Amino acid sequence: MILAWPVPGFASTIATETPFERGKHYFARGDYTHAAMSFEAAMRLNPCDSNALYFDALSYQQAGDFQRALALYKHAMSVFPGSRAAAYSVVALKELQKRMGNNQAAPPPAVADPAPVPEAPVAEQKPADVVAELIKKGAELQENGRGNEAERSYIAALNQAEKGGQNNIQIADALQALGDYYSESGLSGKACDLYRRELRVREFCLRDHPEMLADCMTREASIFTKDGDYATSEEMLRRCVDIYQSELEKAEHNHKRTAVQRQKLISAKSALATILRLTNRANEAKSIEQEVKMMLQQ
Questions:
Q1: How confident is the model over 66-100, as pLDDT tens digits?
Q2: How far, rounded to the nearest angstrom, does the alpha carbon of residue 86 sit from its chain's CA centroid?
Q3: DSSP characters for 97-139?
Q4: Which among 65, 67, 138, 240 could disulfide-bond with 60, CB atoms 3.0 to 4.6 Å apart, if both were Cys?
Q5: CATH assignment of 14-101, among 3.40.50.10300, 1.25.40.10, 1.10.260.40, 3.40.395.10
Q6: Could you say which DSSP state residue 166 is in?
Q7: CATH class of the domain comprising 126-205
Q8: Is the dihedral of CA 21, 26, 27, 28 positive or negative?
Q9: What is the pTM of this model?
Q10: Nearest-CA neighbor of 160 among 128, 194, 119?
């Protein structure tokens, strides 16, 4: 059973909401495709948003994509140990696995706030928690116009993450946060250097979850385009198209709901067509735009 909440003035307020708030509105209305996309947008803005990750998993579960939900619950438990999102994910994961083992439709867990999970003392924080806190602090400083302090916080997060080895997801999150800071500061070249390293780390960490990697590449391709690196942007988007196409075909083969994968594929193809037009390949761009048009009509 889902514990829902009223959503007054949805049409008039959604445009001004944060992605996370928008996702909750979509979720309450039963629009799980747009809910998942909104929660993923929230995570791109703030990689430390554990609540958005949990609700993203919840949206996929309700949409019927149980394998994707399982992967996201496990990811929340791994990246945000000790958090409320991780605690919810443990319960949700066990229930989902149990129901899948019994070949039953798996309803999502309730979305009410249970008793809060006690926060670990700072002295007992795990390295991943320290990294998440430093990124969160950097985001708050940046939002308050304290850019130099935000940069130092992001760099401290990266230094802390690197203590856990050269290929861990916390390094990727810190690189993304610092890259986003430089991008928003107008230093797209510096941002792209960090994104390249970030994607190499994510490729290692997410080798069993290609769609998550494609989500990152789709987002960051626009920064490479802004920096004038059309070749890298095109390479990333073509790979995203291949990944999303493969994920869509898998979902169709397994008779799963495909709205989220379809929308991601459309977005990646549209972005690729834009790159092709920017590089004077109008015929190829037109062909892809026709494919997008046909997908939208389906």
A1: 888 888 888 888 777 767 777 788 888 888 887 77
A2: 16
A3: HHHHHTT---PPPP-S--SPPPPPPGGG--HHHHHHHHHHHHH
A4: 65
A5: 1.25.40.10
A6: S
A7: mainly alpha
A8: positive
A9: 0.64
A10: 128
Residue 29 near residue 7, CB atoms below 8 Å: yes
pLDDT band at 244 (very low <50, low <70, confident <90, very high): very high
Structure tokens at 43: 């995570």
- Predicted confidence at residue 33, as pLDDT, reads 84
| Residues carrying CATH 1.25.40.10, the chain | 14-101, 126-205
Amino acid in the structure at residue 189: G
Question: CA 285, CA 138: separation in Å to the nearest integer?
Answer: 39
Q: What is the dihedral of CA 259, 297, 274, 271, to 10 degrees?
A: 0
Model confidence pLDDT, tens digit, residues 117-152: 334 333 445 666 788 888 888 888 988 899 999 999
- Does residue 5 surpass a pLDDT of 60? no
CB atoms within 10 A of CB 201: 21
230 CB neighbour count, 10 Å cutoff: 16
Rounded CA-CA distance 242/147 in Å is 38
Question: Phi, psi at residue 100, to the nearest 5°?
Answer: -65, -35
